[in-house]
Write a structure and sequence with these properties.
Layout: E1 3-8, H1 16-31, E2 35-40, H2 46-57, H3 65-96, E3 101-104, H4 106-109, E4 111-113, E5 122-125, H5 128-135, E6 139-143, E7 146-150, E8 157-163, H6 169-179, E9 184-189, E10 210-212, H7 213-221, H8 229-238, E11 242-246, E12 254-257, E13 277-293, H9 298-308, E14 316-321, E15 326-334, H10 338-347, E16 354-367, H11 375-387, E17 394-398, E18 401-407, H12 411-422, E19 426-428, E20 447-451, E21 454-463, H13 468-478, E22 483-488, E23 495-503, H14 507-516, H15 518-521, E24 526-529, E25 532-538, H16 548-557, E26 565-569, E27 572-578, H17 582-592, H18 604-607
Parallel strand pairs: 1-2, 1-9, 2-6, 3-6, 4-7, 9-11, 10-12, 13-19
Antiparallel strand pairs: 4-5, 7-8, 11-12, 13-15, 13-16, 14-15, 14-26, 16-18, 17-18, 20-25, 21-23, 21-24, 22-23, 25-27, 26-27
Helix pairs in contact: 1-3, 2-3, 6-8, 7-8, 9-16, 11-12, 11-13, 16-17
This protein binds adenosine-5'-diphosphate, aspartic acid and magnesium ion.
Length: 609
């Protein structure tokens, strides 16, 4: 007998017939001798409908942060109704075939969250009620996506309904699985499993029999909405077995493998340690190309030439200087390859105003899955460095890692600052640390993701002195705005441009927050651009192969698609492109890495329309 959590997404419970099909699967699982807890989403597109309704009655734009907060409370109350419809119907459907069942909403179970609306994190899930119902032979049907806020003063749950953020029922399911120590958490959806990319854009995307938690975390946070990234984070922290399967088929689906044993505490589920480790790498040298003309093919030409010579480029950042229509590109390479890299770079005619080489740099990084969606962590890192008077030359972020290039002579001070702030050891970086034996065999590109939901914000004319990045990101973290692809351009002027991407929904809020302090902090204009998309490749085998990024850039350049920003981490490369070219970009990249299969993946919920 196993204890199984099954989560069914919106399309899997879209109408009465689908609910009955889900009921039959649950019944089969119980009849096979298992205990089952079910987590469901709202039916079909219910949540979208409720969001639209909310907008239709409150068209006046929310002005102040307080007004926004007041509205967000009511939005949660509204959106949480969607899931309640499904739990009641599914439980009744089970009861009607003689299967005892009980429906519970987030408050009844006590899925206790932070007191934050529309994006609350789960603190803990009370297992008592669920276990009691299971002991009575019932199937427990729980509303996903919702919780109840904690009272920060008493530490007890209140009656305030919260939601976890769109797509959050995956996270509810895995959190519940962790709390009741389920044997497996099965996510049922409208695709046969995790695919190399979204089959709605590339119908011949291929099924993956398995994927590592690390890769899935990146893919999910880079736009593959098949899983809510925070669910993968919990699975990894708590060692929850997880798989993704189709609710239409009986196929095995995709297993999400985790090389690590979970170390999380069930008392503070989603707010465990933010940062797991720090590292410093002195074996880095930096090459910066200033004021490169902003046209397609530049990055491709540069990184292809470096790859051809076997140069292992580590961190790449590229940011458009919006005011001047030029790019600054900077990258780091291992010191022993610097000479060759410099020769290659200088031999190319790409029109940079100057090329600067610096061997006196170090890269200091913090790593941790807990930093996903926690904008405060980056701000804290930048503040810690600023407080020690350390200037940050380059910044590169992924969802689970933040790296800053600094002057090597600041290395020891930086280590001390990071150790003190995050209470983690900072180790000397060793190449390929933390990789599993299998990663060498892993495909270099496992999947391609597209995020059309991002906007780019650029803060211009930022004075080049310690503390500026920290101050800027503090403003955003105070408003709980998550950002990624932070690129700080490397310039020979005494001002920098700092650009990053945020969710489109947060764009206006971010702009307001930054404009409020522009004069005090002494930077120039804040410009916003919602016409961008982010396309990314992910694969843990990338670490062992040079030239992967170059192939991605070439695939885009060959069709004249301009890359506006680049950010890389060990297992991913992301490019910002114009939104209208984004789907084409995704298809080209998928093709470049030969990821297509032989058959067409049908998405039943897409076919219905
Ligand atoms: P649910 O309602 O079951 O939670 P979602 O709509 O949230 O389902 O997620 C499933 C969708 O994710 C699929 O229909 C597909 O369009 C999309 N998707 C994006 N990237 C991928 C990928 N790499 N693999 C599978 N599906 C993906
Ligand atoms: N119903 C919620 C949404 O549409 C949560 C979910 O489906 O995961 O975002
Ligand atoms: Mg979903």
């Amino acid at each position: 007998m196993a204890l199984i959590v099954q989560k069914y997404g919106g399309s899997s419970v879209a109408d009465a017939d689908r609910i009955k099909a889900v009921r039959d699967r649950i019944k089969r699982t119980v009849d096979a001798g298992n205990q089952v807890v079910v987590v469901v989403s709202a039916m079909g597109k219910t949540t979208d409908g409720l969001v639209a309704l909310a907008e239709s009655v409150s068209t006046t734009h929310a002005q102040t942060f307080d007004e926004i907060a007041a509205k967000e409370r009511e939005i949660d109350l509204l959106l949480a109704t969607g899931e309640q419809v499904t739990i009641a119907l599914l439980s009744m459907a089970l009861q009607a075939v003689g299967q005892p069942a009980i429906a519970m909403n987030g408050t009844q179970v006590r899925v206790v969250t932070e007191p934050i609306h529309t994006r609350a994190r789960i603190l803990y899930v009370e297992p008592v009620q669920i276990k009691a119902a299971l002991a009575l032979g019932k199937v427990v049907v729980i509303a996903g996506f919702q919780g109840v806020a904690i009272d920060e003063k008493t530490g007890l749950p209140t009656n305030e309904v919260t939601t976890l953020g769109r797509g959050g029922s995956d996270t509810s399911a895995v959190a519940i699985a962790a709390a009741i120590e389920a044997d497996i958490c099965e996510i049922y959806t409208d695709v046969p499993g995790i695919l190399t990319t979204d089959p709605r854009i590339v119908p011949k995307a291929q099924m993956l029999a398995e994927i590592t938690c690390d890769e899935m975390l990146e893919l999910a946070s880079l736009g593959a909405k098949v899983l809510h990234p925070r669910s993968v984070e919990i699975a990894r922290n708590f060692g929850v077995q997880m798989c993704v399967r189709s609710s239409w088929l009986d196929d095995a689906g995709t297993v999400i493998t985790s090389p690590r044993i979970g170390t999380g505490s069930l008392e503070t589920l989603e707010v465990n340690r933010f940062v797991e480790a720090g590292s410093i790498d002195y074996d880095q040298a930096k090459i910066a190309l200033l004021q490169v003309p902003d046209r397609p093919g530049i990055a491709s030409q540069l990184f292809k030439s470096l790859a051809e010579k076997g140069i292992n480029v580590d961190l790449i950042i590229q940011a458009v200087q919006e005011t001047e229509g030029v790019n600054d590109i900077a990258f780091t390479v291992p010191k022993d390859q610097l000479h060759l890299a410099e020769v290659v770079t200088r031999s190319l005619e790409i029109g940079a105003s100057s090329i600067a080489v610096d061997t006196n740099v170090a890269k200091i990084s913090i790593i941790g899955v807990g930093m996903i969606g926690r904008p405060g962590v980056a701000a804290q890192m930048f503040s810690a460095l600023a407080a020690s008077n350390i200037n940050i030359q380059m910044i590169s972020t992924s969802e689970i890692k933040i790296s800053c290039v600094i002057n090597a002579s600041d290395g020891e001070t930086a280590i001390a600052a990071i150790q003190k702030t995050f209470e983690v050891p900072v180790q000397l970086h060793q190449r390929n640390i933390g990789l599993t034996e299998n990663s060498e065999k892993s495909p270099s590109v496992r999947g391609v993701a597209l995020d059309r939901n991002r906007a780019r914000i650029a803060v211009q004319k930022v004075p080049d002195r310690p503390g500026m990045a920290a101050k800027i990101f503090e403003q955003l973290s105070e408003q709980n705005i998550s950002l990624d692809m932070i690129v700080q351009s490397q310039s020979d002027r005494d001002v920098n441009e700092i650009a990053f991407t945020v969710a489109i929904a947060d764009m206006t809020k971010a702009e307001t927050a930054l404009n409020q302090v522009a004069t005090t902090l002494g930077y120039g204009e804040v410009s916003c651009d919602s016409g961008i998309s982010k396309v990314s490749i992910v694969g843990s085998g990338m670490i062992h192969q040079s030239g992967i990024a170059a192939r991605m850039f070439s695939a885009l350049a060959d069709t004249g698609i301009n890359i506006e920003m680049i950010a890389t981490s060990e297992i991913k490369v992301s490019c910002v492109v114009r939104d209208h070219q984004a789907e084409e970009a995704l298809k080209l990249i998928h093709q470049e890495f030969n990821l297509s299969g032989d058959s067409i993946i049908e998405v039943p919920s897409a076919l219905k329309k």
